[in-house]
Amino acid sequence: MMNDATLRKIDLNLLLAFSVLMQERNVSRAAERLLLGQPGLSAALRRLREALDDELFVRVGRGLQPTPRALSIAPAIEDALSGIERAIRPQAEFDPASWQGEFRIGMCDNLESAFFGPLAARLLQLSPGARLIGIASDKRDAARRLDEGVFDFSVSVHKEPASWHIRAPLFDQASICIYDEAQLRLKAPLSLKDFANVAHVTVSFEGNAATSIDSALSRTGHVRQVVATVPRFSALPTALRAMPAIATVPESIGRCMAQLHGLTICQPPLSLPADPVTMLYRRVDQADGRARWFRGLFLDVASVALEASGCRVSISRAAA
Hints:
This protein has a 5-stranded mixed β-sheet. A 5-stranded mixed β-sheet has the order 9-8-10-7-11. Strands 1-2 form a two-stranded antiparallel sheet. It is built from 12 helices and 12 strands. By secondary structure, the protein is an alpha/beta fold. The protein has helices at 4-9, 12-24, 27-33, 38-52, 68-88, 109-126, 142-147, 192-197, 212-218, 236-242, 251-261, 289-309; strands at 57-60, 63-66, 101-107, 130-136, 153-156, 165-173, 175-179, 199-203, 225-230, 245-250, 264-266, 275-282. It starts with a helix and ends in an 11-residue tail after the last helix.
């Protein structure tokens, strides 16, 4: 068996020189193909002979004749070089039309309401053999579940990413007020007094009623009354249709709710902070053709969906 010291003497350049010599059986032609001078190729052949302890090629007239050892190792060397060539060859462009498999996206429920349907519809058109899987996710566990391979990327309000993740900005999500005008007989625009005095319904996965809205109201000297807290945005429309109350929600889902359930929307009567919605994905997937295509598809779909809903924001160019 060849020892480690011998293996270290044989590099890719020597194997490539051997392969070309096997094909050409002529030093001049082989050197020309390798863009080497004859002295350089001769030196490479000498090193390979020393490492393998065999002549490998014997001069016969103007050509070279391979030795039995050279003939025996040539197929394995050709296979190895072919494997290296296949490995480093540029990846073929991803073809969504012929691809079959799953695309997996992590989103919280307010963003699912705005984007999942249009994304699924567009994917069905472009990649009919694919299936879209939506995974319930939020900023607390997005990074961990991303590393576990639960989804291809997450769309949420993410924390500062780890060095092996990429966080791409999408849009700043503003807030909007939504209510049933038949229940809550108020006309837009709402005054700060009206906003503070009506009953409020909030959304909190953990059941917390206090939000940044309460902080903003306290700075104006007002306090609101929260009469109900639901864990998911999907519960809001029926709650608002059942009682005279108002909810302040992300604009993207608020406009969807208004269109689907006949609710009224208006701008909050005070300044509220906007949440930076971002896309989080693994750095190792940055250049992957399939993953890159899926991220690009989401950006296109989300951009159209935001514009169609009447949202005041658009997808950041930096996300591309």
